[in-house]
Amino acid sequence: MKKLSAILSVPAILMAGNCFSQQVIATAGSTATGAGIELSWTIGEPVTATGQGADFYLTQGYQQGQPEIQTDDQQISLREGWNIISARVIPEYKTMDEVFKQLITLGHLIKVMNEEGKTLEDWGVYGGWTNGIGNLSTTEGYNVKVKSPATLLIEGSKYLFPFKIDLTSGWNMISWPAAGEQNGMDVFSTLISEGKLIKVMDEAGNTIEDWGVYGGWKNNIINFRPGEGYKVKVKNECTLIINESGIKSEIVLPAPLVSTHFVPAFKGNGTEHMNIHVVNLTESGIKPGDEIGVFDGNICVGSVKIPNQLLSAVSIPVSANDGLQGKNGFTPGNEISMRIFRNGKETELNIIPVNGESTIFKKGATLIAKADMSTGIDEQDAMFNVKCYPVPFSEELYIEFTQSASAQTKIRINDILGRKIKEFDPAFINGRNLVIWDGTDQNGAKAVSGFYFINVENENYNRIIKVTKTEIKI
Q1: Which of 31, 93, 221, 398 is buried most deeply by CB count within 10 Å?
Q2: Does residue 273 sit in helix, strand or coil?
Q3: What is the DSSP letter of 440?
Q4: Residue 277 CB partners (closer than 8 Å, separation 6+)
């Protein structure tokens, strides 16, 4: 799956059990094929062979002098917590325990993990530092967790370009072999045009992905950088080709404002992110300066502060629990809840999915959602008050609200996937409105147990309240 590029000069090549010796070709050339390798020679030159094996590319020539092997060193900065890293040089000693030896000696390293879940970590009395990964692969990225900020030094020879990385269907964790930065959209333009790419994610949870009607393909990673690794999800097996040089994007996205009220439980970047994109900030009642937190129960797993210039959408990467240092992230399968903080008050922020995803935590997933306060957080409370009771309910849900006589209000019931279940168009009655939902859909069929969103809106205000329907009579 992964390929390594190098330049070597040897009297013979032994790969996959096949030996190809140097010889002078006096005809139009020749091609030899063995298990996992293909070599070809051209006429009128010293013998030159190019081979591709399961783990490498090899270019070999018999020349007057020995071909020069270009070497370099690479310094990779690591921040406390999780990082995704990759090498752009081929070290002489490739075993993972040798590559990370200095970080182990200095006491910085906690764990290294590859895309298959194999690790380099300390087994304590059961074996000490154990390398379950094997050798460093230059096509792969690696999850690395450190106790404190550190620098990893890798010395070795340079790659050959263009560089090919085979991708399997689903998630891959890849390297960035180029010495310079390149625009991420350019790197994946071919896979996007071929309809093969689903999502790219960096170590902080920023993505390149298709937002559909809410913006199409968006690049929140901007440039790919040396030393970084990236997660890539594709629809089927394909090959990513990376050139030695490319155009660097000059776009600079403003750094997300840090919430001081909602502080995530994880350190640094977090890991195994899920992405939550809230797309209707202007209509939702969210204001500049508001702080939004995403929670798994009482654990904050991601947060953001709305900038002074209100955007149409905001992205919140949320981190999974890594099982190493207490509950420091979400547990897949748990329900997502969100809160908003304004002027010293904190209240629930309800969300309705608009991309077919549920409001359930899932590693690597993307939730695009519309949001609104479930209860008012400012002066709007007195002008447009909505109550739903009993919650949870089994047979009937009372939806009560007050408003002015001139407002035309509609009530829409959506399920957890954002699908419309039922809609009401209540009449104004003495300043008080009351709608009773009998728990059935638009066709009169009984709605299943689970979460539902009550959307009460008119031309001035919008309220979204999440309720639970159960089979148990309340």
Answers
A1: 221
A2: coil
A3: B
A4: 211, 214, 313, 314, 315, 316, 366, 367, 368, 369
Collapse the DSSP code of 155 into the 3-class scheme (helix H, G, I; strand E, B; otherwise coil) and give the result: strand
Task: Please tell me the distance from the alpha carbon of residue 248 to that of residue 225, in angstroms, as a whole number.
Answer: 10
Q: Do 88 and 144 touch, CB atoms closer than 8 A?
A: no
| The dihedral sign for the CA sequence 121, 126, 132, 134 | positive
Pairwise CA distance, residues 233 & 238, whole Å: 11
Tokens 């629809």 belong to residue: 235
Would you write out the chain's pLDDT as a tens digit for each of its 474 residues? 444 433 333 333 333 333 344 444 444 555 555 444 555 555 444 544 555 444 554 555 544 444 455 778 999 999 999 999 999 999 999 999 999 999 999 999 999 999 999 999 999 999 999 999 999 999 999 999 999 999 999 999 988 899 999 999 999 999 999 999 999 999 999 999 999 999 999 999 999 999 999 999 999 999 999 999 999 999 999 999 999 999 999 998 888 899 998 999 999 999 999 999 999 887 888 889 999 999 998 899 999 999 988 888 999 999 999 999 889 999 999 999 999 988 877 788 888 899 999 999 999 999 999 987 644 555 444 556 788 899 899 999 999 887 655 567 888 898 877 788 999 877 655 556 788 999 999 999 999 998 888 888 776 666 778 888 998 776
* Strand 81-85 to 217-219 pairing: unpaired
Contact 154, 89 (CB under 8 A): yes
Q: What is the DSSP string of 39-72?
A: EEEETTSS-EEEEE-SS-EEEEE--SSPPPPPEE
**Could you give the CA distance from residue 286 to residue 283 in angstroms, rounded to a whole number?**
8
Per-residue CA distances from 455 to 23, 351, 443 (Å): 78, 10, 19
412 DSSP β-pair partners: 423, 455
Torsion over CA: 371, 375, 380, 386 (sign): positive
CA distance 204 to 73: 25
Do you find a cis peptide bond into 254, omega within 30 degrees of 0? Answer: no
Give the C-alpha separation, 370 to 353, whole Å.
7
**C-alpha 374: how far from its chain's center?**
28
What's the CA gap between 457 and 380, in Å, rounded? 13
Phi, psi torsion values for 31, nearest 5 degrees: -135, 135
